[in-house]
Amino acid sequence: MPDTTNTQADSPVAGPDLAASGDLVIRGARTHNLKNVDLTLPSGKLVIITGVSGSGKSSLAFDTIYAEGQRRYVESLSAYARQFLERMEKPDVDSIEGVSPSIAIRQKNSVRNPRSTVSTTTEIHDYLRLLYARVGRTFCHRCGQEVMRETAEVVARRLTLLPTGTRVLVGFDVPVLPVGTPVSGNGNGSDTVDEIAEREAPPPNIRGHRIAAAGAKRAVGTAAATGDTVNESAEAKPQLDGSQAITAAIQALRRKGFGRLLVDGRAVAFEDVDPAALAGETPLSVVVDRVTIDAGVESRLTDSIEIAYTEGGGAAFAVQLDGSARHAAGEVPTPEGAPVPVVHVFSERFECRACGIGYEDPQPRLFSFNNPFGACAVCHGFGNIIEVDMDLVVPDPLKTLNQNAVEPWSKPHYRTYLAELKRAARKAGVSLDTPWRDLTDQERRFVLEGDGGEFEGVRGFFQWLERKKYKVHVRVFLSRYRGYLTCPECGGTRLRREARDVRVGGRTIDQICALTVKEAQRFFDQLPLGDTDAAVADKLLREIRRRLGFLVSVGLDYLTLDRLSSTLSGGESQRINLASALGSALVGTLYVLDEPSIGLHPRDNRRLIDILRQLRDQGNTVLVVEHDADMIRVADHLVDLGLGAGEQGGRIIYSGSLEGLAHEPRSLTAKYLRGELSIAVPSQRRRGTGQRLRVTGAAEHNLQHIDVSIPLNTLTVITGVSGSGKSTLVHDILFPAIKRLKGGTEKRVGAYRTLEGAEFITDTVLVDQTPIGRTPRSNPVTYLKAFDPIRELFASTKDARTRGFGASHFSFNVPGGRCEACEGEGQVRVEMQFLADVFVPCELCDGKRFKAELLEVKYRGRNVHQVLDLTVREALAFFSASPKVLRRLQVLDEIGLGYLRLGQPATTLSGGEAQRIKIAAHLSSSGGERLLYILDEPTTGLHFDDIAKLLAAFRRLLQAGHSLLVIEHNLDVIKTADHVIDLGPEGGEDGGRVVATGTPEEVAAVPASYTGRYLRHVLTTDARSDRLGA
Description:
Blueprint: H1 5-10, E1 24-29, E2 37-41, E3 46-51, H2 57-75, H3 79-82, E4 93-97, E5 102-105, H4 118-121, H5 124-135, E6 137-139, E7 146-147, H6 152-159, E8 167-174, H7 195-200, H8 232-235, H9 242-255, E9 260-263, E10 266-269, H10 275-278, E11 284-292, H11 298-311, E12 315-320, H12 325-329, E13 342-347, E14 351-352, E15 357-358, E16 384-388, H13 390-393, H14 415-428, H15 441-449, H16 457-466, H17 472-479, E17 482-486, E18 502-503, H18 509-513, H19 517-525, H20 531-553, H21 570-584, E19 590-594, H22 605-617, E20 621-625, H23 629-633, E21 637-642, E22 651-656, H24 658-661, H25 668-674, E23 692-698, E24 706-711, E25 715-720, H26 726-741, E26 754-756, E27 763-767, H27 780-783, H28 787-795, H29 798-803, E28 827-830, E29 838-841, H30 852-855, H31 864-868, H32 872-878, H33 883-894, H34 911-924, E30 931-936, H35 944-959, E31 963-967, H36 971-974, E32 979-984, E33 993-998, H37 1000-1004, H38 1010-1018
Parallel strand pairs: 3-20, 3-21, 5-19, 19-20, 25-31, 25-32, 27-30, 30-31
Antiparallel strand pairs: 1-2, 1-4, 6-7, 6-18, 8-11, 8-12, 9-10, 9-11, 12-13, 14-15, 16-17, 21-22, 23-24, 23-26, 28-29, 32-33
């Protein structure tokens, strides 16, 4: 393929006429804010699309290129198949040529299936199931001995190891049925085994003068004498005529070709057997063959054992006789005091003969918790059950019983139960004024279990409620105190007992899945296997090691294989999908990725770049929306969108190589890379108010009982490598703990010892990048409550008062003034069955959302539809005389969102825009509160210039007296922080410790800190003079 890079570097926007064969050519792309974009991208290259937030990057990459690739694939299917697939709408583009089958790997984690884990998503679990089914060893969970199936070949080989000349009698036991007992069977010796009786039967004596000892009865389901099926109940029936039953059994055996029984340690011919003497004896021991051990007897022994297995329902015996051949043949009685024969008992059943426990044959479905065959019968493969959670029943262990420690009994409807508790507690001597956590175990048990009499305790109360579940309010009440508890049967492993008894390398499959990726990689690299097992498992192990290596390469070596997919962050989910894509080894595919470096520490960027290059080198085109400087440097082809965001964006500023971008004067990206623009290091760090929020003994997940102090009224950044415990500390401990203290959540709080300083803040707020609304009706002006005073202004006009219009008439969310044909949406959906739905402008209102008579009402020459079409900057000038509107809209302009239109649908906003709108909503609200704002990776999707605007918004919040706690890897944010907490040093079990704390300069001076190593470079002017350098 001709190289188009140099051509495009010389021409900032390459036209379609420059396209090489096989290149991706886009003509007239107008999706969202794209301005009729024409673009040519080289195939088989690593292409980076960058630009400010809202400039149209995702619109081009996902909503145009990827959407068209997906649509063409779907349209290649039959009409019948298409009706079962998601409907694909054709993107607004004139034409796209050279598009390959497309796979999108997004930041969003849309997996909510509680059965999906890291190992199932990456298909590692499928290979593990096959590995355990093929080379796994089953061990008895009672005695710990290996469970083996003794085939005829194995038994014969073992017997040939006896001394040469040893006489062996091979046979089987068969129960005797009383005459007239109804039986069923096919008569071919392969009938069903009574599994319950088989597992409960005691093991036979392996030494004795009687083979059929009473303690050695085997309730097999095959009667060798009659070929009929028996069971334990039939075997236990009284013998009405024992001698007749013995005679009938011998006759049946004779018809099958057998001729001897083993009686009192001697082989006795049928003709010499006295049925009367054997009456009441069961089972009978039938001799199949008499063999003398020598060099060529193995084949004969194998055939004899197979016959014994077939006729004996899978069980056989071999009697090793002592004495001469005449003794063995029964010609001469065994002398008194002579050694008794040695009995070897064999079974081809898969069971522990010492314990009498049967086991399932290892097979792939046995190790799948998504299959009913392998899933735990109690939790059905979920690993947990829904039960009353005592942490929700007693949410605050510092409260006493008099202070309503038992939360459900604090409700007015159930206060009578609290009165009963107090009466019973006084009678039993249980303190009512001692905090719950200081009560003894016996006192707590009294409250929970009751006294066994009139007071039934908390559990009795909930059992009573269970009987009232047919009432809706009772079900709602119960749901508040239920939680997911670990399954008591499987211990959270999800698998049935038999699956947890199979081991490879000394570990069960659930123990393997509980390992981190790094630990699992080490285990399989060192896995000891015999020659045979190694040959069987070679390809399986190669694939498992390969996929584990991909996870390590994308920086996810700290994740455990049984980690639920629903608990992963968007960045983690995206990198797992990236690892899965590498494992699939597809070629000729277009991969579209959305900021894969998000959530990744700078230390791990190089590994991610290597993965993307490997994906490209397999013969794929890799299209990445990215802002990271390291990623931009390694791109084969760069596309920069701008100049601004929203209506000011949607244009191609540059398309070509990195060298060409360095000389593009219009590009904001180039200015930051060249160092012309930069985010400056603050000359002075904020010291805050002196008050601190302090958590001690944080020990959730991998946190190692750490103590953390957060100065208030400062920008505090928590950083560290992926998996070091940042999200655990903030989302699982700090946020829910403060919320619970403020009475705002019932979410479970992670393990910690104390939380101090919460009284210094009013509340805590989590500000993330989720959309501000899910429908087109939601927009910036309604989210900021700025539309309320605007509607009041319209309602105060003379025309509105004359027509009787109030403020509610100017809302498109409620009936009144909105167009009822489209219900205020401005467009109507047309169902197209198996084709994508078509949205057309409403014919009645022409897409204006309101009734015609309401649009006649104007404020300063504009109707409400025209006002909603104004940008924020235009609205500031238009409403200059309205302080209520100005106060709310000014904040949007100050944090860099002046280009947004007031009525822009929330569904068209980027994640960074949504996050800044949320910050603006808090800035515009007044009330003198002192809030702790928590932000997790706020730079996701943000360009260098957008980060500068975000930091300006942070400064506004700090000036208002609030505090900021930010989880972040971006060095531009970390270097501007007032206080940094670096966790690590590694991820997973090797993390969870505080590596360094203090100002960025203090953290940079700590040698053990990975963050500090990278901070040293960005904190110096020389290192930042030219970011385009190597």
